[in-house]
Write a structure and sequence with these properties.
By secondary structure, the protein is an alpha+beta fold. 18% of the residues lie in helices and 29% in strands. α1 (2-16) crosses α3. The radius of gyration is 19 Å and the shape is globular.
Length: 312
């Protein structure tokens, strides 16, 4: 049983990890049945003014381009996922700021430098990167762009959390030209560990939305990587996570997305960017471990395993 439980997360991990960085041609295997669900997954279209800190990243390599999201953290810096730009040079990346559309509007700026520290591609640890823009964001040039402060710890109860981006809107489908947003529920670290194994409670935060239809849940998907998990509280927004990885079949029941917590890296980031604005949203309690269905699933698997062990 020990071995089984040790292996289970690894198997899940191996199967689910690396929903591609948004090259939609590689986004998982083709669907085995026609996909009728409207699905970010299950999101609604929003204007950039609802989330003016979101930027669209285009990463060019050879003939292919990949897409990711990012968040403005100051007039000169963007935070995104390290896996989006891993092995890439600053010159391959462009950033569209202040637009609801991925491929038009707003302003496109280049990247001067990339900062990544200790990103581990095999385990997707420290999946966070800072991009220094080659042009300053200003309210006069970029009326629809604004920085978002880092949130601390978990969002307080009474806050509403979202992720947003231009990624796939259905499994096996295509990315969205219009910015989409979906509401998410934060998971406890222990519930998340039951699915993904090695999750760091201080460096990562897990979340999944409500049920959309059938066994499909609201979620981020390939192409949303690097974009924000943000929460609003009393009309203020703060950044609590960066889209890192999730199940290859986005929105899989019982499988949350994993997001990097930028607050963990704050002092390191400030050495690059200078002092950042930090949100005054109070720190919430850790999420109660309420994932009853997961536990009963785990219990059921254990039981079946015992039965099999006895029978054979
Ligand atoms: N790694 C993906 C990307 O590069 C993000 C996957 C998020 N997936 C999920 N099911 N939440 O775009």
């Amino acid at each position: 049983m020990k071995i089984f439980f040790f292996l289970l997360p690894i198997l899940i991990h191996a199967r689910f990890i690396y929903g591609t960085v948004g090259d939609t041609s590689e986004a998982g295997s083709p669907p085995d049945k026609v996909d009728i669900h409207p699905r970010i997954i299950g999101g609604t279209q929003i204007s950039i003014n609802n989330a003016p800190f979101i930027v669209g990243l285009t990463i060019r390599s050879g003939f292919s381009t990949e897409m990711c999201g990012g968040s403005i953290i100051s007039s000169r810096y963007i935070v995104t996922a390290a896996h989006c730009i891993h092995g890439k040079a600053a010159g391959q990346i462009s950033v569209r700021i202040g637009s609801s559309r991925f491929d038009s509007g707003g302003r496109v700026v280049g990247v001067r430098s990339i900062y990544v520290d200790n990103y581990k591609p095999n385990t997707v640890e420290n999946d966070i990167a800072i991009l220094e823009l080659d042009s300053q964001i200003s309210s006069s040039n970029d009326p629809n762009a604004r920085a978002i402060p880092f949130g601390n710890g978990n969002p307080p109860s009474g806050s509403t959390c979202y992720t947003a981006g231009w990624g796939l809107t259905s499994n096996g489908g295509s990315s969205s030209s219009n910015l989409m947003r979906v509401q998410l529920n934060i998971w406890s670290t222990s519930s998340c560990r039951m699915v993904w194994g090695n999750i760091s409670g201080s460096k990562q935060i897990c979340a999944l939305g409500d049920r959309l239809i059938g066994d499909l849940y609201k979620d981020s998907c390939a192409g949303d990587s690097g974009g924000p998990l943000y929460c609003t509280y009393n009309g203020e927004a703060a950044l609590y996570g960066i889209v890192s990885y999730g199940p290859q079949e986005c929105g899989s029941e019982g499988v949350p997305g994993v997001y990097t917590r930028p607050s963990y890296y704050e002092s390191g980031i400030e050495q690059i960017t200078g002092t950042l604005e930090i949100s005054d949203i109070p720190v919430g309690p850790s999420v109660p471990d309420s994932s009853v269905s997961l536990k009963s699933t785990a219990a059921a698997i254990t039981l079946i395993y015992y039965v099999l062990t006895i029978v054979f």
